[in-house]
Amino acid sequence: MTRTGWGCGFCVHFSNEWGERCDHVARHMGEEGKGVREWKHTNVIYSLLQRPGIYHEWMRLVRSLPSLTEFGWNRTSTGRVEGYPESNLTPQLQDYLEYFTADQDAAAVARLAYAKMKKATAPTRGDERPPVPPKDCPAAEVRSWDGEMYSWGQLTESVVEDDVLPTGISRLGGWYAGE
Fold it and tell me: Distance from first CA to last CA of the chain, Å, rounded?
Protein backbone atom coordinates (compact mmCIF):
# COMPACT_ATOMS: atom_id res chain seq x y z
CA MET A 1 0.00 0.00 0.00
CA THR A 2 1.13 3.52 -0.74
CA ARG A 3 -0.22 6.84 0.42
CA THR A 4 -2.27 8.39 -2.39
CA GLY A 5 -3.22 11.74 -0.91
CA TRP A 6 -2.23 14.43 1.55
CA GLY A 7 -4.12 17.25 3.24
CA CYS A 8 -2.87 20.67 4.20
CA GLY A 9 -3.22 21.70 7.84
CA PHE A 10 -2.86 25.42 7.09
CA CYS A 11 -5.83 25.59 4.71
CA VAL A 12 -8.26 23.19 3.04
CA HIS A 13 -6.25 21.81 0.11
CA PHE A 14 -5.97 18.22 -1.15
CA SER A 15 -2.82 17.02 -2.93
CA ASN A 16 -2.49 13.73 -4.75
CA GLU A 17 1.24 14.14 -5.41
CA TRP A 18 3.93 14.35 -2.72
CA GLY A 19 5.97 17.02 -4.53
CA GLU A 20 2.95 19.25 -5.04
CA ARG A 21 2.04 18.82 -1.37
CA CYS A 22 5.54 19.81 -0.26
CA ASP A 23 5.49 22.89 -2.53
CA HIS A 24 2.06 23.87 -1.22
CA VAL A 25 3.08 23.59 2.45
CA ALA A 26 6.40 25.34 1.75
CA ARG A 27 4.51 28.34 0.30
CA HIS A 28 2.51 28.65 3.53
CA MET A 29 5.69 28.49 5.58
CA GLY A 30 7.94 30.61 3.36
CA GLU A 31 5.63 33.26 1.92
CA GLU A 32 3.12 33.45 4.77
CA GLY A 33 5.50 32.71 7.64
CA LYS A 34 3.26 30.00 9.09
CA GLY A 35 4.62 27.46 11.53
CA VAL A 36 3.65 24.32 13.36
CA ARG A 37 1.44 26.26 15.78
CA GLU A 38 -0.90 27.24 12.93
CA TRP A 39 -1.19 23.65 11.61
CA LYS A 40 -4.69 22.27 12.37
CA HIS A 41 -5.49 18.58 12.22
CA THR A 42 -9.11 19.40 11.40
CA ASN A 43 -7.92 21.14 8.21
CA VAL A 44 -5.93 18.02 7.27
CA ILE A 45 -9.02 15.81 7.54
CA TYR A 46 -11.20 18.36 5.77
CA SER A 47 -8.61 18.61 3.00
CA LEU A 48 -8.52 14.83 2.60
CA LEU A 49 -12.31 14.81 2.31
CA GLN A 50 -11.88 16.98 -0.81
CA ARG A 51 -10.36 13.96 -2.58
CA PRO A 52 -12.15 13.11 -5.83
CA GLY A 53 -14.37 10.13 -5.13
CA ILE A 54 -14.78 10.83 -1.43
CA TYR A 55 -15.88 14.46 -1.85
CA HIS A 56 -19.14 13.49 -3.61
CA GLU A 57 -20.02 10.97 -0.88
CA TRP A 58 -19.06 13.41 1.87
CA MET A 59 -21.27 16.14 0.39
CA ARG A 60 -24.18 13.74 -0.05
CA LEU A 61 -23.87 12.68 3.60
CA VAL A 62 -23.48 16.22 4.96
CA ARG A 63 -26.54 17.46 3.07
CA SER A 64 -28.68 14.70 4.56
CA LEU A 65 -27.85 15.37 8.22
CA PRO A 66 -28.71 18.03 10.82
CA SER A 67 -26.94 21.36 10.77
CA LEU A 68 -23.74 21.84 12.77
CA THR A 69 -22.40 25.07 14.20
CA GLU A 70 -18.96 23.81 15.24
CA PHE A 71 -17.09 20.68 14.34
CA GLY A 72 -13.61 19.24 14.14
CA TRP A 73 -11.57 16.08 14.42
CA ASN A 74 -9.36 15.08 17.35
CA ARG A 75 -5.81 14.26 16.28
CA THR A 76 -5.49 11.56 18.95
CA SER A 77 -8.46 9.54 17.71
CA THR A 78 -8.32 10.31 13.98
CA GLY A 79 -4.66 11.09 13.17
CA ARG A 80 -2.11 8.83 11.54
CA VAL A 81 -1.12 5.57 13.19
CA GLU A 82 2.68 5.47 13.38
CA GLY A 83 3.99 2.57 11.31
CA TYR A 84 0.81 1.96 9.31
CA PRO A 85 0.49 0.01 6.97
CA GLU A 86 3.69 -1.94 7.65
CA SER A 87 2.58 -2.70 11.20
CA ASN A 88 -0.52 -4.67 12.06
CA LEU A 89 -2.03 -1.69 13.85
CA THR A 90 -5.61 -0.67 13.15
CA PRO A 91 -5.73 2.39 10.87
CA GLN A 92 -7.47 5.59 11.93
CA LEU A 93 -9.46 8.05 9.80
CA GLN A 94 -6.42 9.91 8.42
CA ASP A 95 -4.89 6.59 7.31
CA TYR A 96 -8.09 5.55 5.51
CA LEU A 97 -8.24 8.92 3.76
CA GLU A 98 -4.55 9.04 2.78
CA TYR A 99 -4.41 5.46 1.50
CA PHE A 100 -7.80 5.55 -0.24
CA THR A 101 -8.03 4.01 -3.72
CA ALA A 102 -10.89 4.13 -6.23
CA ASP A 103 -11.81 0.48 -5.61
CA GLN A 104 -12.63 1.20 -1.95
CA ASP A 105 -16.01 2.25 -0.53
CA ALA A 106 -15.99 6.06 -0.51
CA ALA A 107 -19.38 6.22 1.23
CA ALA A 108 -18.05 4.11 4.12
CA VAL A 109 -15.05 6.44 4.51
CA ALA A 110 -17.35 9.49 4.49
CA ARG A 111 -19.55 7.86 7.15
CA LEU A 112 -16.47 7.13 9.27
CA ALA A 113 -15.37 10.77 8.97
CA TYR A 114 -18.78 11.94 10.12
CA ALA A 115 -18.89 9.44 12.98
CA LYS A 116 -15.44 10.54 14.21
CA MET A 117 -16.26 14.25 13.94
CA LYS A 118 -16.68 16.23 17.13
CA LYS A 119 -19.99 18.02 16.61
CA ALA A 120 -22.19 20.73 18.09
CA THR A 121 -25.68 20.83 16.67
CA ALA A 122 -27.19 24.16 15.63
CA PRO A 123 -30.73 25.13 16.48
CA THR A 124 -33.06 23.92 13.74
CA ARG A 125 -33.75 26.73 11.28
CA GLY A 126 -34.82 26.15 7.71
CA ASP A 127 -32.64 23.81 5.75
CA GLU A 128 -29.19 24.84 7.04
CA ARG A 129 -26.54 22.17 6.70
CA PRO A 130 -23.07 21.64 8.19
CA PRO A 131 -20.67 24.19 6.75
CA VAL A 132 -18.54 22.84 3.91
CA PRO A 133 -15.80 25.16 2.71
CA PRO A 134 -15.02 25.44 -0.98
CA LYS A 135 -11.87 23.73 -2.12
CA ASP A 136 -8.66 25.55 -1.16
CA CYS A 137 -10.52 27.67 1.41
CA PRO A 138 -8.17 29.71 3.67
CA ALA A 139 -7.76 28.18 7.10
CA ALA A 140 -9.15 31.32 8.77
CA GLU A 141 -12.54 30.57 7.24
CA VAL A 142 -12.70 27.03 8.62
CA ARG A 143 -14.10 26.94 12.15
CA SER A 144 -12.39 24.26 14.18
CA TRP A 145 -12.21 22.85 17.68
CA ASP A 146 -8.87 21.27 16.89
CA GLY A 147 -6.79 23.18 19.43
CA GLU A 148 -9.19 22.49 22.29
CA MET A 149 -9.69 18.86 21.34
CA TYR A 150 -5.99 18.17 20.94
CA SER A 151 -5.28 19.65 24.38
CA TRP A 152 -7.87 17.35 25.96
CA GLY A 153 -6.40 14.42 24.03
CA GLN A 154 -2.98 15.14 25.52
CA LEU A 155 -4.50 15.36 28.99
CA THR A 156 -6.46 12.11 28.80
CA GLU A 157 -3.53 10.18 27.39
CA SER A 158 -0.93 11.43 29.85
CA VAL A 159 0.32 8.90 32.36
CA VAL A 160 1.35 10.08 35.81
CA GLU A 161 4.12 8.18 37.50
CA ASP A 162 2.84 6.47 40.64
CA ASP A 163 5.26 5.65 43.45
CA VAL A 164 2.84 3.11 44.93
CA LEU A 165 3.05 -0.03 42.82
CA PRO A 166 0.52 -2.87 43.05
CA THR A 167 1.53 -5.90 45.08
CA GLY A 168 1.30 -9.58 44.19
CA ILE A 169 2.19 -9.18 40.51
CA SER A 170 5.15 -10.37 38.51
CA ARG A 171 7.30 -7.85 36.60
CA LEU A 172 9.22 -8.83 33.50
CA GLY A 173 12.87 -7.89 33.22
CA GLY A 174 13.44 -7.44 36.95
CA TRP A 175 13.13 -3.65 36.79
CA TYR A 176 10.84 -3.48 39.81
CA ALA A 177 13.07 -2.71 42.80
CA GLY A 178 11.00 -4.90 45.10
CA GLU A 179 11.99 -8.10 43.26
Answer: 46
Question: Parallel, antiparallel, or unpaired for β 118-121 and 6-7?
Answer: unpaired
Looking at residue 99, its amino acid is Y
- The residue extents of the domains of the chain are 6-155
Nearest-angstrom CA–CA distance, 42 and 34: 16
The CB density around residue 137, as the number of other CB atoms within 10 Å, is 18
pLDDT in tens, 40-75: 999 999 999 999 999 999 999 988 887 766 789 999
Q: pTM value?
A: 0.67
Give the CA diameter of the chain: 68
Secondary element (H or E) of residue 63: helix 54-63
